[in-house]
Amino acid sequence: MPQATHHPVTHTLGFPRIGRERAVKWALESHWRGEADTTALHKTACDVRAESRQWHREAGVARPACGDFSFYDGMADLCLLFGQAPGRFGNLPNDLDSLFALARGRSSAQGSLAPLAMTKWFDTNYHYLVPELDADRPFRLDAERLLMEIRESLAGDPASKPVLIGPLTFLWLSGGVSREARLQRAPELAAAYASLLSEIAALGAEWVQLDEPILGLDLPAVWLAAFEPIYHRLKTPGLRLLLASYFSPVDGRLSLLANLPVDGVHVDVAAGDDLEALGDRLPAFKVLSAGVLDGRSVWRADLSALLDRLEPLYERLGERLWLAPSCSLLHLPLDAGEETDLPPALAANLSFARQKLDELTSLARGLAEGRGAIAEALEATITARRRLEALDGRHDAGRREQLARSLADEPTRACPYVERATAQQARLNLPILPTTTIGSFPQTDEIRATRRAHRRGEIDTAAYEQAMRAAIAETIREQERLDLDLLVHGEPERNDMVEYFGQQLDGFAFTRAGWVQSYGSRCVKPPIIWGDVARPRSLTVDWSRYAQSLTDRPVKGMLTGPVTMLSWSFVRDDLSREAVAYQLAAVLREEVADLCAAGIAAIQVDEPAFREGLPLRRVGWDGYLDWAVRAFRFATAVAPDDVQIHTHMCYSEFNDIIDAIAALDADVITIETTRSNMKLLDAFAEFEYPNEIGPGVWDIHSPLVPSVAEIGDRLRLALDKVPVDRLWVNPDCGLKTRGWEEVRAGLRNLVAAARDLRHEH
Ligand code: GLN
Ligand code: ZN
Question: N or C: where does the chain have the smaller number of CB atoms within 10 Å of the terminal CB?
C-alpha cells in the first residue's frame, strides 16, 4: 500500500447549523416562547456542533470550519462582536438576548424597537440581517461569545479553522451610512479585526478563513483598491490567513487576489473561477484552495472529471493545493441519508452537506494515492449516475423535440396589447380603476388543519375537496359583498406557491428532511427537479372552474411562473437553467390553454423571483433576462386576445430591468409599492410602460389596515405616473397571512377609495 503522505488538505468553509431534525429551530422557538432558558439553547448548539465535527472526522476532512455557527445570523453576530448595535438599542452586550433583539426587535418603555432589516445573502435564498453602521460609533471588540465557540471547536479538533466574514464584505453589505462613509471606516474596523485575530491565534488556531465574496461582484475601483492595505493590517504573528471568494467568478481580479498579503486563497470553481490561471499567478508560498465541489448543488459530483482537472494542478502545486466545497454548505440540506422515501436511483445521486464531506476526502485520496485507491467511490458514482439516467421520466426525447420546435419562433400573443385591451374590455366589462387582489385569502387554522388531515390520510379526498370548495365559495361571496371587480378563488388548497405545483408535476421530487435555513429559525424545503417536467393532468382548472361557476363576475386563474419555480427549487445539473425554465413554461402553457378553454377570462402568472434570478454581475444580466422573458412569454402567449394575462412581482426594484418587464407583455402587472410610497412606479412612468399596472396600495405585511384616505392618497400619487385607464387598485401581495377581520376592513377601504376616485374621473 502506498503511504498517503501528501494528501491535499481538505477543508470546509461552513456547515449547516440548524441541526438534525432542525434541532436548533425547535430550541430557538421554545426559548422565544419562554419555555427554555439559554442553557438549554447552548446545549442544543453544542450537540449540533459536536455532531458536525464528528461527521468531518469520520469522513477524514482535515480542517473543518468553526466559528460559523449562529443562533440567528452571522452578520448580526458581527454587529455585536464589534459593538455596532444601532443606537436605538442603547448599549447592547454581546449575548443572545441582544442578538434576538437585533433580529426580532424589542419592546421598550419608548415603544417598540425595530429589528435590523433583512435581505438576501448574495444570490442564495438565505437572508442576513443588515447591520446599521453610523459615521463614528467606535468599533469595540467584545469577542468572548465567539472565542468560546472557537475554543470548544479547537478542543474537539485542533485543526479546526475559524471562519469570519471579512471586513470589506461586512462593510459593503451593511447599511446605515453611505458606501463612501462605510469604506472610510475600513482601517478602523481592520484594527478591530486584527485584535480579534490575535485572540484567535492565542487559542491555538493555525489558520483563519476570511470570507470576501464581494470579490465576485461589480465593485467600484476604490473598494477593490482597499483590499491590499486592509489585509496588510490583518497580518497576525503565528496565524495564517485564507481569503475566500465564492458565488461569482473573480474574473479580472486574479492578480489582485494572488498578490494580497494572505497565505492562501480560495475560489469557487463551480461558479466558474479559473483555477489554473490563479495557480499560475500565485506566489510559490501560498496555498490555493480549489472550491471544486459545488456547495449549492444537491447532486453527487463527477469525481473522475474533477480528478482530470485537478491532477495537473496537484502535480504542480503539491501540498499547496487544498480541496473544498465551493462555498459554505449552509445552503444545502444536511444529510441525504435521511431520504429513504425517494426512489433509490434518485436518492443515490444526492449529495447533501454530509455527503459532500465524503466526496471531498475521496478526491483528496484519488489525487494523492491514485484513482485505484478510490476505485470503489468512482465506480459507485458512475453506477449511480447511470441508474439516474435510466430512470423513467429523466429524459423524454419526444417531448424535448416538440418543445424545441415550439420555441423556434419567438412566443408572442396574436395581437399587440392595445388591440388585446379592447377585446378584454369587451369581455370583462370592468370599470375604470378596477379592483382586484393578488390571489390568496386568509389561510385560517381550519384550512390548514384540513390540508394537514388530508395529507396524513385522516380525511379522504372527497371530504377534503368538499372543505376546499366551501372555502372557495365563502371567498367568492365575500368578494362579491365587498364589490371587488376581478375576483380570485383564494388559494385555500395551496401550501406553498412552488410546492403546490411541483407536487402535481412529473420531474419533481420532495425530500423528507431537506431543510435549508432561510433566516433565523426559518427553514425551507426546496423541491428537487430531477426529470423532464410534464403535467399528467390539469393543475388548477377544476378549482378555477368551480370558483367561476359561483359568480357572474370574472375570476382570475392563478399560476406560479417558470422562473419562480426554478429559483425556489434545486435544479438538475445536466441541463441549463434556461432549458429547465422552458420545460416549466411548457407545462404552464398547457395549463393556460386549459384555463382559457374552461372559460377563464383572466389568468395571473406570479413571478416574485423574477428579479432574484439576476446573475450577481451585470455582464450576465442580458443573457438571463433574455431566457427568463422568453419562458414567461412562452407560458402565456397561447392565451387568446380576450384573455387578460396578469403577472405579480413582490418588493423589487424595476429601474434597471424595466425593458425586460415590458417585454413580458403581460396585460397587467401588479407590484408592491406601498412601502416605497409609490416610488417604485417611477421606473414605469419614465419608461412610459405601455400596459396596465396595479401598484399595491395596502402593505399586507403590516397588521395596520389603511384608511380610505390613505389609499386614496396613494392612488392619487399613482395617477401622476400612470394614465387612469391603465391603473388598477389592489393590495401589495397575497392576503394569506392576514386574518379575515383585517382583510374585510382593508378591502372595504380599498374599494371605497377606488369608487371615490372614479367619480373624479
Ligand atoms: N398569488 C400568490 C398569493 O397571493 C402570490 C404570492 C407572492 O407573490 N409571493 O399568495
Ligand atoms: Zn407578492
Answer: N
Assess whether the C-beta atom of 734 lies below 6 angstroms from ligand 1: yes
DSSP codes of every residue in 133-201: --SS-------HHHHHHHHHHHHH-TT-EEEEE-HHHHHHH-BSS-HHHHHHTHHHHHHHHHHHHHHHH
The amino acid at residue 212 is: E
Q: Is the CB of 489 under 6 A from ligand 1?
A: no
φ/ψ of 753, rounded to 5, equals: -65, -40
Report whether 27 contacts 36 (CB < 8 A): yes
650 Cβ closer than 6 Å to some ligand 1 atom? yes
**Are the beta carbons of 11 and 161 closer than 8 angstroms?**
yes
- Report whether 606 belongs to an annotated binding site: yes
pLDDT at 1: 36
Beta-sheet pairing, 528-534 with 516-519 = unpaired
Asked if 701 is an active-site residue, the reply is yes
ipTM of this predicted complex? Answer: 0.99
- Summarised one tens digit per residue, pLDDT across range 395-412 is 999 999 999 999 999 999
Question: Grid coordinates 367568492 are at which residue?
Answer: 476
- Which residues does the chain have with pLDDT short of 70? 1-5
The residue contributing the CA closest to ligand 1 atom 5 is 734
Residue with cell 402587472: 669
Out of 491, 496, 604, mutate this one to test ligand 1's pocket (max ligand atoms within 8 Å of CB): namely 491
Please tell me the distance from the alpha carbon of residue 49 to that of residue 43, in angstroms, as a whole number. Answer: 10
596 is in an annotated binding site: no
pLDDT given for residue 305 in this prediction:
97
Q: Is 20 annotated as a binding residue?
A: no
Tell whether ligand 1 has an atom less than 6 A from the beta carbon of residue 497: yes
Instruction: Tell me the C-alpha distance between 492 and 498, whole Å.
Output: 14
3-state secondary structure 26-75: HHHHHHHCCCCCHHHHHHHHHHHHHHHHHHHHHHCCCECEECCCCCCCHH
